[in-house]
Automatic annotation (TrEMBL):
Name used for this protein in its record: Arsenate reductase
Transmembrane parts of this sequence: none
Keyword Cell inner membrane listed: no
InterPro entries: Arsenate_reductase (IPR006659), Arsenate_reductase-like (IPR006660), Thioredoxin-like_sf (IPR036249)
Entry annotated with the keyword Oxidoreductase: yes
UniProt source species: Streptomyces minutiscleroticus
Family: Belongs to the ArsC family.
Coiled coil: none
Keywords, in A-Z order: Oxidoreductase
């Protein structure tokens, strides 16, 4: 499995501690340095079963600068949201764990991390 993290994020550090405590085999991706492209974001969204606005941190300064709260949340705007996430990775909710079975979870809680571990 792979976990997308921002080392400054307490939820990310908590998820890593739990993965380590469970002896999980995982790879860390510092997604602010190793920025996912639009295709990767589309893939992760498919694995999550979510839309781009569902994993967007709308309180970030970049979100406010872009006016994301005013953007439509529909199929016609989907690609615009994905492009914004690729261009401004700080907007991506974290941590995200991609599991070996092809699924993914936004692992902001211990329960979500355990869900990823059970796959």
């Amino acid at each position: 499995m792979e976990i997308w993290i921002n080392p400054a994020c307490s939820k990310c550090r908590s998820a890593l501690r739990l993965l380590d405590a469970e002896g999980a085999d995982y790879t860390v991706r510092r997604y602010l340095e190793d920025v996912p492209g639009e295709d990767e974001i589309r893939d992760v969204l498919g694995r999550l079963g979510l839309e781009p606005w569902d994993i967007t941190r709308t309180q970030e300064p970049a979100a406010k600068e872009l006016g994301l709260k005013e953007w439509p949340r529909d199929a016609g705007a989907r690609e615009r949201w994905i492009a914004a996430l690729a261009a401004h990775p700080k907007l991506i909710q974290r941590p995200i764990i991609t599991a070996e079975d092809g699924s993914a979870v936004v692992a902001r809680t211990d329960e979500a991390v355990r869900e990823a571990l059970s796959r």
